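Thread: Newbie trying to understand structure tokens

Hi all, I'm a second-year student working on a class project, and my supervisor (Dr. K.) asked me to get a predicted structure for one chain before our next meeting. I've only ever worked with sequences, so writing a 3D structure as a token string is new to me. If someone could post the tokens and maybe explain what I'm looking at, I'd be very grateful. Here's the chain:
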Amino acid sequence: MPANSRKSKARPVTREDILTRREAIDIANAAAYLGVSHKTIRRLISSGRLPAFRVGGRTIRVYVEDVEALKQPIAVND
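---
Reply by user tm_fold:
Sure, no problem. This is what the structure looks like when written as tokens:
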């Protein structure tokens, strides 16, 4: 098999990607960006906290804006 016909791994989504482009990413990239497991992303989708959609029947995608919205600042008590 020629080297150029192999599937390449998708690069992880960076904060710059999220802030500069409006796009959808797969569960693996969403999990990598948040530093959680793919199971956590699936739980968030199932609970309705993270909107998602299917592409091509099997692939689940989420909008990067929705992933970013999951991040919440921690309140500091003085």
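A couple of things are worth pointing out once you decode it. The first helix runs from residue 15 to 20. The chain has a mean pLDDT of 85. Feel free to ask follow-ups in this thread.
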